[in-house]
Design brief:
13 strands
């Protein structure tokens, strides 16, 4: 499973056969006063998973891996309730609860030392030397996620509103892009503030910023250069001690689709901040990482280090 700001994705598979079926919901799992809502998570998960099990003929799940955005700081209820719920409803024997940054790491690099920047709706970097984990950012769209999709989208909308007001730092091109997507600029607060999926709404404008940057808009290009600096800072903060050869560094997530206006500055910033690191392409995405981890759990070959906040493996109690 991969749960993030844009929804929930599920894959059902079998060791030795790989993924057999997949499904997705575009509704993000709710977050309330108690953190990530385990009841809403299970409701969505069962709606997606039960038809997959019926369609593939898989009767019982040996292992489940949950990669969830916000698990490190908002996952207490999920950790307390989800393993037993998975055992009760789906017969799961072993459950790994992982921050989405960890599943992003495993999807990108597998079980190799290095650092991965996961840049989607939010932004978080994770590094490991295979004895422990280090994390930077991932603090959500109000306190951090600097350089992520919601951060870029918010910066682009701010520049659009500056142009609307006639203030310095505005971009007429971004204003036109924002109004094409959201309607008149004066109505933007009503499009953003009341929404429970606010990070996803903000991140939905990141491709617009990318398009304006690709067309040469100076304000949009500077927003993406700033995002690249934030991403490289996070990678440098979690990179394991640099030896010979240097650690691996990969970038994964939807923001890579913005192309050269982001990836060009990012390559330069990574060379400057982690000069001995070896930049490699991500092998897969966070859902691919969840599949890798679930396969290792099911076959008894799981070796990743545990961490109270980022990665725990439990054998749930059956009801």
């Amino acid at each position: 499973m991969d749960s993030g700001g844009s929804g929930l994705r599920v894959v059902v598979g079998a060791a030795g056969h790989g993924p057999l079926a997949r499904a997705a919901s575009r509704t993000p799992v709710r977050t309330g006063e108690g953190g990530i809502d385990p009841a809403h998570f299970m409701e969505q998960l069962l709606d997606l998973t039960r038809p997959l099990l019926a369609g593939t003929g898989v009767g019982r799940l040996e292992a489940a891996v949950v990669g969830a955005a916000g698990l490190a700081s908002l996952g207490d209820a999920l950790r307390a309730e989800l393993p037993d719920a998975l055992a009760r409803e789906l017969g799961v024997r072993r459950v790994a609860l992982a921050a989405d940054a960890v599943t992003a790491y495993v999807g990108a690099l597998g079980a190799r030392p290095g650092a991965v920047v996961a840049a989607g709706t939010g932004l978080v970097a994770v590094g490991t030397d295979l004895t422990g984990w280090r994390r930077a950012d991932g603090w959500g769209h109000l306190l951090g996620d600097s350089g992520g999709g919601a951060w870029i989208g918010r910066a682009g909308l701010e520049a659009a509103l500056r142009a609307h007001d006639g203030r310095d730092g505005g971009s007429a091109r971004l204003l036109a892009e924002a109004e094409a997507r959201f309607g008149p600029a004066a109505g933007l607060p009503g499009q953003v503030y009341p929404r429970p999926d606010r990070p996803a709404v903000l991140a939905s404008f990141a491709p617009g910023v990318g398009a304006c940057a690709a067309e040469g808009d100076a304000v949009a290009r500077e927003i993406l250069r700033a995002a690249a600096r934030h991403m490289a800072e996070a990678a440098a903060a979690v990179c394991p001690a640099q030896g010979t050869p240097g650690p691996l560094v990969a970038v994964t997530g939807g923001l890579t689709g913005l192309g050269e206006p982001l990836l060009g500055p990012l390559a330069g910033e990574l060379r400057r901040r982690v000069p001995s690191a070896r930049r490699v392409p991500a092998e897969g995405d966070p859902l691919h990482g969840s599949v890798r981890m679930a396969t290792d759990l099911a076959t008894g070959s799981f070796t990743l280090p545990s961490d109270d906040a980022l990665l725990t493996v439990v054998a749930p109690v059956r009801a």
